[in-house]
Design goal:
It is built from five helices and two strands; from the N terminus they run βααααβα. The protein is mostly helical and 126 residues long. Strands 1-2 form a two-stranded parallel ribbon. The mean pLDDT is 94.
C-alpha cells in the first residue's frame, strides 16, 4: 500500500497534478480530448495547473486567468465529467490525506459541476 501524505507545499501540488494528468493522458474516455487540445504543450499546461492548484489549495496567488474559458467549447458531456472526477478522486485517495486533500476533492467537484452546467448550456444554444 502506498503511504499517503498531506498537501502542504508546491511539491505535493505538483505531484498531485502530475499523477492525475498521467492518468488522464492514458484514459480511454479522456485522453483523446485532452491530447487533441493540448497536443505537445503538456509542459505548459501542467505549469498552469500547478499554479491553479497552488492558488486554490495553498492560498499562494500564482494563477492568473479564467479557468472556464479554455473548456467552453470542448466536446464533452456527463460521462467525461464523471470520469474526470473519478480519476481526480482516485489520485487524491491513493496519494494524499488531510484537510487539503478533502478540499481538493471538494473544489474539483464544484468546478466539475459548474463546468458541466455551463458547457451544456453553451451546447444547447448552438
Amino acid at each position: 500500500m502506498t503511504k499517503t501524505k498531506e498537501i502542504k507545499s508546491l511539491e505535493e501540488v505538483k505531484q498531485m497534478v502530475d499523477l492525475f494528468y498521467g492518468k488522464v493522458r492514458q484514459d480511454q474516455i479522456l485522453a483523446g480530448i485532452f491530447n487533441d487540445v493540448i497536443k505537445d504543450n503538456w509542459p505548459t499546461h501542467l505549469e498552469k495547473m500547478y499554479r491553479f492548484w497552488q492558488t486554490v489549495l495553498l492560498i499562494e496567488h500564482t494563477y492568473q486567468g479564467s479557468p472556464f474559458a479554455p473548456h467552453a467549447k470542448l466536446p464533452v458531456d456527463g460521462k467525461h465529467f464523471d470520469r474526470w472526477r473519478q480519476l481526480f478522486f482516485e489520485t487524491i485517495d491513493e496519494n494524499f490525506h488531510g484537510e487539503k486533500a478533502k478540499e481538493a476533492k471538494f473544489r474539483a467537484e464544484k468546478m466539475a459541476e459548474m463546468f458541466q452546467l455551463k458547457i451544456a448550456y453553451i451546447q444547447q444554444r448552438v
